[in-house]
Amino acid sequence: MDSIPANRRLWNRISGAYQHEHDPRIGAAPRLWGMYSIPDAHLHALGDVTGKRVLELGCGAGQWSRALAAEGATVVGLDLSEAQLAAAARAMGTACYPLVQGAAEQLPFAADSFDLVFCDFGGLSWAPPHLAVPQAARVLRRGGRLVFNVASPWFEACYDEAAGRVTTTLRQDYFGLDTIAEDDGATSYQLTYGDWVKVLRGAGLVIDDLIEPRPELEAPNGYNETDPPDWAHRWPAELLWVTHKP
């Protein structure tokens, strides 16, 4: 399934509204993961990037990329949407880094190019993982790391489409998630825990850690309504995978 054209159109259309709503929070401080903006200092997923060559898959307006560039990484920000890349260019500031338009399932980079490939609800949420993960592994150098945050399948399985919120009731089949229809014919992707393991191992990656970020009781979700409000304090809303290429 080629979801690239529809996903590109969707993000070009919603980029301005998305950044207006979310950038004041995610752009306010460096290294914030996921729906609850949990600091990497609490999760210890990314590590020191000084002097590393880093690729962000789905950089959006570059909130992560510009922070890592300021830390001394050689960063490349990749995004499918030219509107998102334009937002990144406007927000770049003094820590300059290159921006590339492209898809996570068709990376326009040579093999063994990066020390770290990462994303936070980016390319590995919006590209077929069975295509995008091998691409990420291909462009990693030996010893390089793939680190990425995606929604937990339980979060998606409990999403009540009619009510527009996540509840405590299972609504979708866990084994039938796979592709998720988004607005304008776009598609996002969701795997079970077992399928993530198969895809990562199939790409030759070693799984070092699976972090299930747990927000504090009062932490707000900036993207979804949950019932109860402390849903993600009680059940895993996100999966933060830490892997490397041996």
UniProtKB/TrEMBL annotation:
GO terms for molecular function: S-adenosylmethionine-dependent methyltransferase activity. Pfam families: Methyltransf_11. InterPro entries: Methyltransf_11, SAM-dependent_MTases_sf. It comes from the Bacteria. Keywords: Methyltransferase, Transferase. Signal peptide: none annotated. One of its GO terms (biological process) is methylation. The keyword NADP does not apply. Residues 55-148 form the Methyltransferase type domain. The keyword Methyltransferase applies. This is SAM-dependent methyltransferase.
